[in-house]
Structures
1.
Amino acid sequence: MNTSSLSPSSYVILGLLATCGPATPYELKKLVDGSVGYFWSFPRAQLYVEPERLVSLGLLTEQREEGGRRRRVYSVTDAGRAALMAWLADEATIAVELRDAGLLKLHFAGMMGAERVARLARAQTDLHRQRLEEYERIAASFASAGEGAPRDLSMDTLRMGLAYERLSIAFWEEEALRAEEAGAARPQSTTERA
Amino acid sequence: MNTSSLSPSSYVILGLLATCGPATPYELKKLVDGSVGYFWSFPRAQLYVEPERLVSLGLLTEQREEGGRRRRVYSVTDAGRAALMAWLADEATIAVELRDAGLLKLHFAGMMGAERVARLARAQTDLHRQRLEEYERIAASFASAGEGAPRDLSMDTLRMGLAYERLSIAFWEEEALRAEEAGAARPQSTTERA
DNA sequence: CCTATCATGTAATCCGTTACATGATTAT
DNA sequence: ATAATCATGTAACGGATTACATGATAGG
């Protein structure tokens, strides 16, 4: 069983099916959007293609409805559950990178005028504020929901999400300030270091 | 000019060539490793393939050395510089996601025993501690280096990196604690919710 | 009944990665 | 010379994204 070919997205599917029971791609999409989607999203099409692969690996089974829409319903097999558990149990270091295009722009932003940098920083601040609000809304809805499973860890990941967004807001706000200062001190031309 | 086909990695190449002058793929690799690589890495092969595409788009020019190794030296064209500036100036919201496989595991870790969760958390803590040390080393070397360009923003991105690693360490440490508590309170079997 | 929307799939493409393979310098 | 390492490329593959295209159901 070639389990080395499984990507994190594969495990999202395996995990959701294992915890929430059999589902169609469409239902999976709704599950993703309501949980992991906020920090591990992927396009809808993947939810139609990827399960096929998992079936061919023996990790899922596919059943088609008889009537009407004849849609595919996927369930995890024992092998699938095993693969999921193996992945979960494997604490080998996983490279994490702050892969943020905004930071990347900032890195090269020295080529631009300070005013531009400030704008970028403000836009990023807004973005993270929005995101924070979303997370807070979800957190609120979590608080009211009852506990499921042994210990519900989705609140934990959300806590990290909240903390990260707050950090980002603080960072970009300071960045905007710095840029404005720099701009005021030396109102540079638009072609500096062109 | 189809600039919509440029990925962030393309802009890394454009940006480095624009700020550091003409370079070969190998030199680019060293530049990446010494700067953006710490938060936007990609494999070496990309540095041989991607520039070709950028040449075909008219954003770079390629010159081959005459003697010996005949290696390719790339330089940005005016069009390339323009594309870079356009990207930098475009503050359209850029989706950022905390795409961290460790968090993903944590999200589904409820299926495992608390002991396993604690292990995961400890492994992640170590990982981020290492990362933090690296960043601190780089920061130290930055402090001694002289200022370049109008305002050197690479220190700014590094500040965010440092803050993010510290946050991650704090998060995973707490997570380890919680898991240990849960484990002590209810030393669960290995097959809970199997 | 017909239309809007909900739902479902497929095909083509592309970027990034891994693996393979070789050429040039340097040092001993 | 020759080994070791530095440097340079290419080919194949695969997951992810976009774009395309159609089927079913509910509501007016």
Note: Residues 24-26, 44-45, 48-49, 69, 71-72 of chain B lie near DNA strand D (CB under 10 Å from a C1').
2.
Amino acid sequence: MPELPEVETVVRTLRPHVAGKKILKLRTVGTPCLVPESRSLEEAEGRVVAEASRRGKFIVLRLTKDRESDLFLVIHLRMTGRLMAYDRPESAEENWTENLCGRHARVFGLLGVSCADCALVFSDARKFGRLFLGTEKERADWSSWARLGPEPLDMGEEAFAGAITGRRAVKSVLLDQTVLAGVGNIYADESLFAAHIRPDAEAGSLSKARLRRLYRELKRLLLLSIEQCGSSIRDYQDADGNVGAFQNTFAVYGRGGDMCRNCRGKLKRVVLGGRGTVFCPRCQKT
DNA sequence: ACGCGTGCCTGTTGGC
DNA sequence: TGCCAACAGGCACGCG
């Protein structure tokens, strides 16, 4: 599932395809995927993609037009969403009806400088993904965006240690997008293992020193994963259809019952806050 | 008010 | 071998 490193990879691979190009066509296909706060996608047509960026797990395209305020196209891939760019539009039309990705197409776009030279396809087998189009002001009024916490790569040790509080399990706090934006199940489990902290430890009970350590490990793993183009479990691919490599270095995620690479003990799988959670009872204390 | 549980979805997987 | 229940989980929402 796409988390911060995967979304960052999508943005990086998408950028060269779309930057500076005019949106000639942008339409939804099939099951609606726009949030209620969104404008209709047709309003993006005629605008130029000025910038592609990431905020938490959101992909953000800034769309400009002469003398009009910018519009922002914001995309959340959720579980199985894919945003793909095809440099030959006709190949996308083909895929749209032919292959698996295309079978689940939800949004179809055509971009180009003078003529259409890039097709943009958002597909999503599970239909959890969501899109938003609106002005900066409208985006600020959209609660999913407004409530986003700080970026984990930028917030720093002290702010992180100050934010991980309360009686909830530390893993639940890591996954709370209002506390910090971008961490999902993979990087929560992996960073807790790296920092030797049990996922079910009460957040507020952890010392500042241990929380600073957790922050350093989380940041290290996020950056390492970005270097390796993210983790591909089953569905994730970048905008070019390539898979990541970070899944090969997982210490705990998806390894319940397997041997701990550190102590050779058996990794334990539990359900915490409704999510599958794997940890090493011997290496991860309190 | 906050924290937990549930529903949304469908492709994949594992057990019988 | 084939079928079907269980599973995967981010986020919105409802309940206590």
Note: Strands of chain A lie at 22-28, 48-55, 58-65, 68-76, 81-86, 105-112, 118-124, 130-134, 268-272, 275-279.
